[in-house]
Each structure stands twice: as C-alpha cells, then as structure tokens.
Amino acid sequence: MKKILILGANGDLAQALIKNLNKSIFKIYKLKKKNINFFNINSKTKLFYYLQKNKPDIIINCIGLLEDNKGDFTKIFKANLYPSWLLVNYFIKNKNLKVKIILVGSSSFNKPRKNYILYTAAKTALNNLYKSAKDFFKETKVNFYIINPPAMNSRMRLKSQKFSSIKKNFDLGINVEIIAKEILDKFKIR
Prior knowledge:
Blueprint: E1 2-7, H1 12-20, E2 26-31, H2 43-54, E3 58-61, H3 73-92, E4 99-104, H4 117-136, E5 142-147, E6 152-153, H5 155-162, E7 174-175, H6 176-186
Parallel strand pairs: 1-2, 1-3, 3-4, 4-5, 6-7
C-alpha cells in the first residue's frame, strides 16, 4: 500500500483529493494546521519528524493563502512558500529516498493580478523553487512536480473576496473536484 501525505488537508482542494483517492491503494496521511502550524517556530522539526516517521511515497502540498493587497507580506509568503521549502530542505538531507512531491501553485504565477500582488509574487516564487528543486534532484529519486490550476471555487477564494474591497464581477472559479481529478490523473495517482 502506497503512502500519500496531503499538506493543508482542511482545504477544499485537499478534501476533494482525499475523496477521490482509492483507499484500497493508498494509506492517506492528512496534515492539518492543528498538526503543524507553519507560522510556528517548531514547524520544521515537527514536519521533519513526521516525514521520517511516516515515509510517504507521494506528498501533495495544498497549503495556500490568498489575500488581497492589504494582506501581510510575511504571512502570505510564509504560507505559500515555507512548507515547500521545508520539503526541499528535508529531501536535500535525504536524497536517497524515493518520493513524488507535487506542489500546488496557481495560474497567477504567470498572469499578473493587480488586486493580489503578494499572492501572485509568492506563487511565482513557488514556481521558481520548483524549477530549482527539480534541477537539484535530477540525479535522484526525489521527484518534484507543480500544477498551476486556474481560480477555484473554494472557501479560500470566497474568504479572500469577502474581506476584499474588490467586489464587482467576481468569478467563483472552477469546481475543486475537477482540479482534484486532474491532479490525480496527470500524476497517475489513482
């Protein structure tokens, strides 16, 4: 039985992934903010221990934070980048392991979003982190991937709209079920 770790397991995309995974093939580990809060100083130690203890075959990082231009720089960048950096950091020290790591980015990485400047910048940085990690690990069995889905109809998106000053012509986005199935199909996780 393969082990799959979902980071950000409380989110809508993560929930859709979990719902669509074949439970007879995968043992699913759900990492939620209550388990490891990446804004806390001990998150690196906790994540490294969790990875060492559970040894997942596949990791999908669904953690993300979408806030408009009033959002906090450190909070937005830490939520969107730090967990992925910790995964890179852990596997630099454990290059002999075999693992597939999928980062969930955003289509905003190559489409400027004037009302979400920090979010767009963080997702652009995530794509560069992915490219560098992929190159770094090319001679190993540590495989990094990224998917940059379009706007999704999720609680995160609705919450950002609720607190945003941008109200007109708000697009709800694509159903998360569609994105989840696309991820599972694209990366042959079924």
